[in-house]
Amino acid sequence: MDKVLLYDTTLRDGTQAEDISFQVEDKVRIAKRLDELGIDYIEGGWPGSNPKDITFFQAIKSETLQHSKIAAFGSTRRARITPAEDNNIQMLISAQPDTVTIFGKTWDFHVHEALRISLEENLELINDSLVYLKERVPEVVYDAEHFFDGYKANPEYALKTLQAAAEAKIDCIVLCDTNGGTMPHEIPAIMDVVKKAVDVPLGIHAHNDSECAVANSLMAVDCGAIHVQGTINGFGERCGNANLCSIIPALSLKLKRDCLKEGKLQTLRNASRYVYELANLTPNKHQPYVGNSAFAHKGGVHVSAIQRHPETYEHIRPELVGNRTRVLVSDLSGRSNILVKAEECGIELDGKDPVTLEILEDIKNLENQGFQFEGAEASFELLMLRAMGKLKHYFSVSAFRVIDTLRDSDEAPVSEATIKVKVGGKVEHTAADGNGPVNALDKAMRKALISFYPQIGEVKLLDYKVRVLPTSQGTDSVIRVLVESGDHEARWGTVGVSSNVIDASYQALADALTYKLHKDND
User: Fold this and answer.
1) CA-based angle 331:332:336, to the nearest 5?
2) 350-365 pLDDT, tens per residue?
3) How would you write 12-38 as a 3-class SS string?
4) Neighbours of 406 (CB within 10 A)
5) CA angle 192-252-205, nearest 5°?
6) Helices marked H in 154-293
7) For residue 401, which phi and psi values (nearest 5 degrees)?
């Protein structure tokens, strides 16, 4: 297989995305994780633009990377000064990276309007800067900014900028679709011309403004590019950069190109989730290859088919990228869904057993009322166990009351919950204050149960979502509450539905605690 070099720019281009900001410690941790994945180049930032990036290059020197090269990013020298006088160029060198990548202007429109210099002077900026750097750093990459737009506007000049770079005998020229407007069908003809104009290894750097960044990157590789730039999860300015989490498996599994060492592709999903976590963002469940829903099946016909041959509705085996097949249960479910979910939960069900049909009917009735089990698989497991008579009766709540009291108009209301819980023959009647009525109820329920079941103290409420169902009417609405809970071993989702948000929350919270007790005693 032909080798394709992977160049990650999550720590620079990725941080230009709205809502993303990494501390230096985060950037170091991500760099180490990308090294474990097997990324060839990790672009750490622009040392001439901000103190944080300077600190990163200092910090990363104390880390031992097994595979990746660290790249520093910058620009060509400024007009009317030499590279030796340009502070940005000097900062790139003093950062002591393995590789330096600089960008230059390809589009004549930018040369005239942004730099306000002559076209010939721009060629000198490119060549001077690259010659100077190539004499002082081990490896130099040139990003031809706005190349595709520049080529379409003035092909002769765009090619001259690449030739000015190639004359510096650099290691790679990267063709950039900076505005993200290029279509995949445009790539082959343009790259064919470029390959005839310069004899330097070519790369691709695509943005996703037209939802074509991954397609353009793959097309460029098919046309001869051996260097692909992108970010983990497609993070980047505006609509993002080319998503390496889609490009890497496509290169490995679809185009049969060598880009990761054997066994590393299976860690791709974990790397994706790791970067989401440090970015403090919720993972996109619909993301190809690595998302939770990438191999999730809901329709009964689909589930029945993948039971026989997964290839019927899965384009790859999810385990290849560290993912897994998921079977969802809903009003679209068939008997196959129920049997698969039961097997996942370690519950033996016979397809001909009337209990299976009863569970299926219960699900459809409950979803008609507004329940949703796709994100509440713990509630679904409890439903199956109850139908089979296999769920132990851990506790019952005979009464609860929640009161919100406004004591001062300048302060938030105070919430208090009282609850009466019965465990065996004993009754516990207690109360708790909370930050809002649901939090107060949650605290009161735990307080009542913890003397009977100390493991309740391990449960944490990780997420809480409330949705007003579409068919509801104003304040007389039906509410669905989805709760995600977890302990030191696992996470699980539960659901409640009611016209009363407190009651819906109670249902979901009670299921969450019941599931914990069942899990620990199973």
Assistant:
1) 110
2) 666 677 767 777 776 7
3) CCHHHCCCCCCCHHHHHHHHHHHHHHC
4) 9
5) 45
6) 155-166, 187-197, 213-222, 244-249, 268-279
7) -145, 135
